[in-house]
Design a protein that fits this description.
metal ion binding; 0% helix; Jelly Rolls; mainly beta; RmlC_Cupin_sf
């Protein structure tokens, strides 16, 4: 569903993906909702949003997980929402990520990794996000940080950027991610970092209004051709992920 009306004088182009319109795969041990085409879910109108290629909303059962599998030339970001996820990779990393942690991998020339639910008594929920890089065949790398969840109360906490010296993890792309957790009726403005970028907003919890578009839990809204967006929480403890990304794939070097 595309909207080309002006919203609050700022947003001129947008695409709305309601939660119940996403692709769904239920393998018993894994239930995954796909905002964009992935595996057996193929939708020619849902291939990507700019360089944002994959946004998977995954639930993994107790003690289960993804066996070792390969990736290359992709920036892969994992955001745990509940539970503990154990990660192992061909770079020698063995780590556990949980709510408040952010994990980023540059697959570059090629890596293998596995992901398992660390717990035997609860499921784990996490977002797996793939971003096309602006450099191909880089040396694979791994990054993981733990954030202070209080720093996202009624403000947008930066969790990812293109700059290793900046807040959050970093990737090979001119992208910035933020998470905010807001009280009901709290409003803020997000100003884009780079001209020509767009923003994909994904509601983690609660209800929001962006411009004049109402969003509910797990809805996604892509916005481009704007310098800023107005965001208002319509419920208590409403939580949102903003992913600012280039709208065009930059020439890979």
């Amino acid at each position: 569903m595309e909207n080309t009306d002006i919203i609050d004088g700022a947003i001129t182009n947008s695409v709305l993906h309601k939660a119940n319109s996403r692709g769904n795969a239920n393998h018993g041990w894994l239930e995954s909702y796909h905002t964009f085409s992935f595996a057996n879910y193929q939708n020619s109108e849902r291939m990507n949003f700019g360089v944002l290629r994959v946004l998977n909303d995954d639930r993994v059962s107790q003690g289960m997980g993804f066996g070792k599998h390969p990736h290359d030339n992709m920036e892969i970001i994992s955001i745990p929402l509940e539970g503990d996820l154990e990660h192992q990779d061909s770079m020698g990393n063995t780590t556990v990520i949980k709510e408040g942690d952010i994990q980023a991998m540059s697959a570059g020339t090629g890596i293998f990794h596995s992901e398992y639910n660390k717990n035997k008594d609860q499921s784990v929920k996490f977002l797996q996000i793939w971003i096309y890089p602006n450099k191909k065949n880089v040396t694979p790398r791994y990054d993981q940080i733990t954030l202070d969840l209080n720093d996202r109360h009624n403000k947008l906490q930066q969790i990812l950027s293109p700059n290793p010296e900046d807040e959050g993890v970093w990737i090979h792309q001119n992208a910035w991610f933020h998470i905010g957790k807001f009280d009901s009726d709290f409003s803020t403005v997000y100003e884009l970092k780079k001209p020509g970028n767009g923003v994909y907003a994904f509601v983690l919890k609660g209800d929001f209004t962006i411009g004049n578009i109402d969003l509910n839990e797990r809805d996604g809204l892509g916005i481009w051709d704007t310098n800023a967006i107005n965001i208002t929480a319509n419920s208590a403890n409403a939580e949102i992920l903003l992913m600012e990304v280039p709208m065009q794939l930059e020439s890979n070097k």
